[in-house]
């Protein structure tokens, strides 16, 4: 690893890696071009002309706003729940060794380790068995469950970096448990929690598979988009929404990266 | 510090307990750390245990119920009839198709991911390394639906890919491929080839990250030692690099395999009308209202992933997660 | 007079491991006390018992006459300088030092003034605005000291405080700690595995092994009159002499010890004494250390530099004054 200084990167590898990155990014960039196309009925390339009129059209669509508002509310509440549960769990797991510790971390990871459709149909089965009607809160139930893990991963990584003797030092200097939490623990994990919260928000904001099983008639923004993909009504509006969604999710992810860049990684496998 | 010194002599060695609820609680938590641990674990374990594990049990339970064919109501009695239905030829076809696709997607992801992971692990430095990391993270976290949608635009008959092929005078190649059985179709967006490409695209970052993590742990001098001993780059790759990167590859493949098994949106939007497991689950619980059969279908990926994880664990893949 | 810290039959067991085993100990107010021992000998656990991070499984601890079992660390007027310093990375140096006063509710101006004074005391005036990450190891060590001292503790605990510093800095800090302790009159309890450090700094030393105290005494006691083979071996480079050997010279069948510098080395032809052969010679600058073989017993002797050295393998005779031979308490 550290011994490649005098070695030149093989050209073939460079090209293959470059092509791979283009493969990863070009499709997303393409969305940006399509948001400006004048073509309404097909996905014609190259676009016959460019226009910004679809932004105005989208702005005036109440269904888009409703879906957006629902998504934001769901993401906000799910994130809040996930931050509380994920932090508690991370604190317990990283502060002490207890019987069943492995089981607890498995329990947290399971909702994303298993495919979303399992989580979805499992919740759906449970709602059917217990006669719980679909509502705003059934969506939250699902989202909070799989969001816990991203907060947990970030918090655990930070706890691991936070020296245990700092807590002892605080108590030694006369701070009781609450003061130690308020003045030492919280300031040290705050950015990790913020990062985890943002990732949880992005995860919830974007989620579609579990949501289709728990939402009933309500439309979150991803469900609205899915609907448009299956039965397109006004394609350019979908293009604009897609572009906005990319930009909106980009921000929290970049911020989360910035907040945790020295030391712990954003748990990529946390999605 | 003379006044301070006087104060010092008067100060007690043991301070009295703080009054009020805070003092009492703080001392209690300190004396019984188990109590605090219990209180911290209670909410998350309760939530995940009841909501998630409870739901998984509900799923399992439902799969042992059956649907009354006349009334369409669910009979809440234990039966293996639903699993019998699952084993019908049409359903087995669905399972086989999904597993084949998952395997193909996993293999392709390994091939595409390797150069990126290898470059990032061994050649990228400093700013470039951070940039590479972001370049993999951003698509990973970008909206799943938007990514699928982007490919609908790309693969459409009038889309950019057809345009590219015609500009390169290679349309004959595209048409030739599309005329093949099974992988072909009217256009890429309604063929298994299209489904396959989109799967690879969407899950690729999940392969790159663990693979890179594993490759970063391969000591560089090991590779140099191999070439010093006269191994050709090909031999070094097969005999040194690949075995050492294997745990990362297996870890990545858990994601690509599991995610492909459970997805129902990609084949629904880009692909043929032939179903995958996810679509079967979705349509059984939705339009058909047959939750027991949907549940039984959902048990299939759980069982397959269980086997897969068991094998991966034996290969030591979890160290790379 | 009440002891600063008093242990009565204190044990701390972790499962089957007896980290501290029925220890009795009395530390005098105002003294500089060292706990010396190899790692895992129980010295750090003792320190943590005083600080309140550990609770005794049996026995009782009192601090200035007050019972300390079941009292959390934050209610003990005892402060610790941690081995890794444990400075708070999110606070600047001034707020680090003022932390103890802050949680006690001392107002901002007053506690910052006190923190400035404490920083001046450890010769770091004006460093308040910096972050812990911007300081060197030695400076961090001083901040940790100031952070503890600002609370005017009844007892200051130091856990291997000099372990992470390089040799030169360590020597400076030793002197400084010593004079600081003299000036403040606070009881210092100091944990170390370095016998040189313990002997040069402490008023009294307790030597730990296997969760027990082997010997408590002044550095001279420990060095010159070790109570057990372990102390003789661990504290210095004393020659440990088996009971048979000791009986020949003192008439008592006990284990004994003999300082290397007490041994005189002569040619084989002259007078009576212990006959031995030279195995090797180690040049140490001011002295030369000789490894000798006396009929299967390995002995060390130290001779001043410039002495004419015998050849390797040469037959020698060793002599010493009988009163230099120290008889240990340990039974044969």
Overview of the molecule:
The complex is a heterotrimer of chains A (271), B (321) and C (332). Chain A has one domain: Orthogonal Bundle (MetI-like fold). In chain A, 74% of the residues lie in helices and 0% in strands. Chain A is built from eleven helices and no strands. In chain A, α3 crosses α10 and α7 (164-172) runs antiparallel to α8. By secondary structure, chain B is mostly helical. Chain B folds into two domains: 19-55, no CATH class; 81-320, MetI-like (MetI-like fold), CATH 1.10.3720.10. Helices cover 74% and strands 1% of the residues of chain B. Chain B contains 15 helices and two strands. Chain B has helices at 2-10, 20-31, 33-63, 81-86, 89-122, 126-141, 144-155, 160-167, 171-178, 192-216, 220-228, 233-262, 265-269, 277-285, 291-314, and strands at 66-67, 74-75. A two-stranded antiparallel ribbon of chain B has the order 1-2. In chain B, α14 (277-285) packs antiparallel against α15 (291-314). Chain B is extended. Chain B starts with a helix and ends in a 7-residue tail after the last helix. Mean pLDDT of chain B is 83; it is low at 1-8. With 332 residues, chain C is an alpha+beta fold. Chain C folds into two domains: 5-233, P-loop containing nucleotide triphosphate hydrolases (Rossmann fold, 3-Layer(aba) Sandwich); 237-327, Beta Barrel (OB fold (Dihydrolipoamide Acetyltransferase, E2P)), CATH 2.40.50.140. Chain C has nine helices and 18 strands. Chain C has helices spanning 43-51, 93-103, 108-121, 137-149, 167-184, 195-201, 219-224, 229-235, 243-250, and strands at 5-14, 17-27, 32-36, 58-63, 66-67, 78-81, 155-159, 187-192, 204-209, 212-217, 239-241, 256-258, 264-267, 274-283, 287-294, 297-304, 315-319, 326-327. The radius of gyration of chain C is 24 Å and the shape is elongated. Chains in contact: A-B, A-C, B-C. Chains A and B meet through α1, α3, α4, α5 and α6 of A and α2, α3, α5, α6 and α7 of B.
């Amino acid at each position: 690893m550290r011994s490649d200084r005098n070695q030149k990167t093989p050209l073939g590898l460079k090209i293959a890696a470059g092509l791979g990155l283009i493969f990863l990014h070009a499709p997303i960039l393409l969305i940006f071009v399509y948001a400006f196309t004048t073509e309404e009925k097909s996905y014609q390339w190259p676009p016959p002309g460019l226009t910004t009129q679809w932004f105005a059209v989208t702005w005036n669509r109440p269904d888009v706003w409703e879906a957006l508002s629902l998504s934001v509310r769901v993401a906000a509440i799910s994130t809040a729940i996930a931050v509380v549960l994920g932090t508690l769990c991370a604190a317990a797991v990283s502060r002490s060794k207890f019987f069943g510790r492995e089981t607890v971390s498995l329990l947290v990871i399971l909702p994303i380790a298993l495919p979303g459709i399992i989580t979805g149909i499992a919740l759906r089965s449970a709602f059917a068995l217990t006669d719980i009607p679909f509502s705003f809160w059934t969506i939250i139930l699902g989202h909070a469950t799989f969001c816990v893990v991203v907060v947990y991963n970030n918090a655990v990584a930070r706890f691991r970096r936070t020296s245990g003797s700092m807590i002892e030092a605080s108590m030694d200097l006369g701070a009781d448990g609450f003061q130690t939490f308020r003045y030492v623990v919280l300031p040290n994990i705050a950015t990790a929690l913020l990062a985890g919260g943002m990732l949880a928000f992005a995860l919830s904001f974007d989620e579609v598979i579990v949501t289709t099983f728990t939402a009933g008639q309500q439309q979150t923004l991803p469900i609205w988009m899915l609907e448009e993909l299956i039965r397109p009504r006004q394609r350019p509006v979908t293009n604009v929404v897609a572009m906005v969604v990319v930009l909106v999710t980009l921000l929290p992810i970049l911020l989360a990266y910035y907040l945790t860049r020295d030391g712990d990684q954003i748990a990529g496998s946390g999605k | 510090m003379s006044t301070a010194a006087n104060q010092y002599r008067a100060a007690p060695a043991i301070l009295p307990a703080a009054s009020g609820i805070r003092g009492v609680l703080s001392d209690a938590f300190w004396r019984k750390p188990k109590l605090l641990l219990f209180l911290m674990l209670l909410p998350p374990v309760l939530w995940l245990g009841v909501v998630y594990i409870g739901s998984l049990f509900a799923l399992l339970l439902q799969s042992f119920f059956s649907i009354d064919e006349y009334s369409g109501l669910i009979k809440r009695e234990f039966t293996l009839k639903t699993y019998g239905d699952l084993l019908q030829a049409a359903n087995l076809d669905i399972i086989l198709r999904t597993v084949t696709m998952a395997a193909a997607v996993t293999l392709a992801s390994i091939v595409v991911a390797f150069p990126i992971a290898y470059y990032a692990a061994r050649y990228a430095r400093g700013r470039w390394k951070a940039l590479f990391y972001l370049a993999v993270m951003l698509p990973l976290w970008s909206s799943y639906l938007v990514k699928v949608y982007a490919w609908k635009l790309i693969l459409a008959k009038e889309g950019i890919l057809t345009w590219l092929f015609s500009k390169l005078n290679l349309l004959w190649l595209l048409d030739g491929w599309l005329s093949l059985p099974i992988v072909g179709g009217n256009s890429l967006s309604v063929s298994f080839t299209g489904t396959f490409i989109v799967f690879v695209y969407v899950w690729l970052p999940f392969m790159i990250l663990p693979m890179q993590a594993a490759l970063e742990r391969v000591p560089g001098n090991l590779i140099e030692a191999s070439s010093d001993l006269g191994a050709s780059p090909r031999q070094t790759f097969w005999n040194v690099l690949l075995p050492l990167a294997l745990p990362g590859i297996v870890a990545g493949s858990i994601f690509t395999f599991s995610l492909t098994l459970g997805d129902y949106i990609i084949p629904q939007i880009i692909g043929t009308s032939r179903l995958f497991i996810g679509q079967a689950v979705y349509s059984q619980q939705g339009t058909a209202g047959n939750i027991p059969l949907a549940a039984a279908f959902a048990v299939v990926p759980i069982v397959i992933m269980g086997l897969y994880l068991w094998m991966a664990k034996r290969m030591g893949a979890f160290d790379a997660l | 007079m009440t002891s600063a810290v008093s242990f009565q039959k204190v044990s701390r067991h972790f499962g089957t491991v007896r980290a501290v085993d029925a220890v009795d100990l009395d530390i005098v107010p105002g003294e500089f006390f060292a706990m010396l021992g190899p790692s895992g000998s129980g010295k750090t656990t003792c320190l943590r018992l005083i600080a309140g991070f550990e609770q005794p499984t049996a026995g009782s601890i009192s601090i200035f006459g007050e019972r300390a079992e079941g009292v959390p660390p934050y209610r003990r007027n005892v402060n610790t300088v941690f081995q890794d310093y444990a400075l708070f990375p999110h606070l600047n140096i001034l707020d680090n030092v003022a932390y103890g006063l802050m949680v006690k509710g001392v107002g901002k101006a007053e506690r910052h003034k006190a923190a400035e004074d404490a920083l001046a005391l450890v010769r770091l005036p004006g460093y308040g605005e910096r972050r812990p990450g911007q300081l060197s190891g030695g400076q961090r060590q001083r901040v940790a000291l100031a952070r503890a001292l600002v609370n005017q503790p009844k007892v200051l605990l130091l856990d291997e405080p000099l372990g992470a510093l390089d040799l030169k800095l360590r020597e400076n800090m030793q002197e400084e700690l010593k004079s600081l302790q003299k000036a403040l009159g606070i009881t210092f309890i100091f944990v170390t595995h370095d016998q040189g450090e313990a002997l040069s700094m402490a008023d009294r030393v307790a030597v730990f092994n296997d969760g027990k105290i082997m010997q408590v005494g002044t550095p001279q006691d420990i060095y010159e009159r070790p109570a057990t083979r372990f102390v003789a071996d661990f504290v210095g480079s004393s020659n440990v002499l088996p009971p048979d050997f000791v009986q020949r010279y003192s008439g008592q069948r006990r284990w004994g010890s003999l300082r290397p510098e007490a041994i005189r080395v002569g040619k084989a032809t002259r007078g009576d004494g212990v006959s031995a052969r030279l195995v090797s010679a180690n040049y140490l600058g001011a002295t030369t250390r000789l490894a000798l073989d006396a009929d299967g017993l390995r002995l060390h002797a130290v001779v001043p530099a410039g002495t004419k050295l015998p050849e390797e393998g040469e037959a020698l005779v060793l002599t010493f004054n009988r009163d230099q031979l120290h008889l240990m308490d340990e039974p044969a």
